[in-house]
Specification:
Structural class of chain B: mainly beta
Oligomer: heterodimer
Order of helices and strands of chain A: EEEEEEEEEEE
Largest interface: A-B, 24 and 21 residues
Radius of gyration of chain B: 14 Å
Number of helices of chain B: 0
Number of strands of chain A: 11
Strand order of the largest sheet of chain B: 1-3-8-7-6
Structural class of chain A: mainly beta
Strand content of chain B: over 45%
């Protein structure tokens, strides 16, 4: 089946630094990718929708200058958490829409971010 | 705005018993997914339901969709401990941010011997 790969799976960074998370569709092209965050024992909350070659669409309450999303190719979207703070610590999960596979959505393995 | 209600949020079952998880959503959706999540892990896709009356089964799990009632169910038959996990339903936000998925709060299932 279609595979979405996220990297890194775990990252620890210091407060004030930036960290980049990559989301790749390995065997299909994804014109649309989605970024979610999940706090412990909670559900997934959509942060933004990423379209190849255009600006991301952010959900209400998500700071676009803090969570930079770039979707430079049909197989790669990146999320950069800028000037990270401990409250940004969370599980970040990406998903990708496989247009050639009936628009089915596939999820990555997730990335644990800890800001110390 | 699409809203999703899942119930129950917590479910403690004995092995061998049957139970149903319910997922209600508020507006039209063209598809609905069910996912399983184990602690510390990402989502594992269980089912995608595409049409009214769709029913899919895999092992001890069976999912159904009633688009008119805006209701999906996940039925567990003869539960076993390995089914312990959190289960999420997620209808597609038809007409929303390009069909992104909106998640229910999840049902934490614990199957006890």
């Amino acid at each position: 089946g279609a595979v979405v790969s996220q990297h890194p799976s775990r990252v620890i960074c210091k407060s004030g630094t930036s960290v980049k998370i990559e989301c790749r569709s390995l065997d299909f092209q994804a014109t649309t990718m989605f970024w979610y965050r999940q706090f412990p024992k909670q559900s997934l909350m959509l942060m933004a929708t990423s379209n190849e070659g255009s600006k991301a669409t952010y959900e209400q309450g998500v700071e676009k200058d803090k969570f930079l999303i770039n979707h430079a190719s049909l197989t790669l979207s990146t999320l950069t958490v800028t000037s990270a703070h401990p409250e940004d610590s969370s599980f970040y999960i990406c998903s990708a829409r496989a247009a050639g596979l009936g628009n089915t959505i596939y999820f990555g393995e997730g990335s644990w971010l800890t800001v110390v | 705005e699409l809203k999703v209600e899942q119930n129950p949020l917590f479910l403690s079952m004995q092995e061998g018993k049957n139970y149903t998880i319910y997922c209600n959503y508020s507006t039209t959706s063209d598809r609905l997914y069910w996912y399983r999540q184990d602690p510390g892990k990402s989502l594992e896709s269980l089912f995608v339901l595409l049409s009214n009356g769709a029913v899919k089964q895999e092992g001890r799990l069976m999912a159904s969709l009633d688009t008119k009632a805006r209701l999906s169910t996940l039925h567990i038959t003869a539960a076993v401990h390995d089914l312990s996990a959190t289960y999420f339903c997620a209808p597609s936000n038809y007409g929303g941010s390009q069909g992104n998925l909106i998640f229910g709060k999840g049902t934490k299932l614990s199957v006890k011997p």
